[in-house]
Amino acid sequence: MKIASRHYFWIIPLLCILSAPVWWSPFTAFLTPRTDGAGDAGQTLQAMGKNFSLDHIVFNLANKGRQQWQVKARQLYTAGSEEDLRLEEVDAHFFGDEGRQSARITGEQGRYRSDLQELTVNDNVVIATERGYTARTQTLRYLEKNNQLIGENGVTVESGRFRVSGEQLRYDITTGKVVVEGRVVCRINQPG
Fold it and tell me: Which of 133, 141, 145, 147 is nearest to 175 (CA)?
């Protein structure tokens, strides 16, 4: 028996229908969008009250064409609202009037409140200034409107020849002026 070529057109769909139980399941699995854990991570972020999360970020703030600061972080995420940004492994650089780096701050965690224009860095905070001072504290706030760094909960400022400890630190980024207040103890090392 000879089959006309026009009948082949009906044999192919018939074979597909009859063999569907064999190939249908792998085919639909192939077409299903993969999440690679992104769906789970998205649900986890939602459960933690986060709207989004970014890894390895750098963001800058400039005012009237002059860069004020640059913040790098391993991770940035929102905490309930878009005005409240949380940071992990913070590395912040602040710039004075001439555009030179005035101070560098590192810490394990941070929080930027855009509504208050305030950056807070917590946990093992280290401040290094252009004048060679190194300060350590547990909490440091940057007040954008005053262009000041304020360290509280005990601070220690060191330079080559001295060490000053106190309860609070104020550092004016524009002028480079450092003020330590509250139960100040100063130790001066003799050269030699």
Answer: 147
What does pTM read for this prediction?
Answer: 0.67
The DSSP code for 183 is S
pLDDT(135) > 80: yes
Taking the C-alpha atoms of residue 177 and residue 171, their distance in angstroms, rounded to an integer, is 6
Beta bridge partners of 129: 103
For residue range 74-103, list pLDDT tens digits in order: 988 887 777 788 899 999 988 876 767 778
φ/ψ bin of 176: left (φ > 0), alpha (ψ from -120 to 50), beta (otherwise):
left
Q: How far apart are CA 87 and CA 118, in angstroms?
A: 13
Cα–Cα distance for residue pair 170/135, rounded to 1 Å: 11
Q: Tell which phi-psi region holds residue 117, choosing left (phi > 0), alpha (psi between -120 and 50) or beta.
A: left
Distance CA 61, CA 119 (A): 12
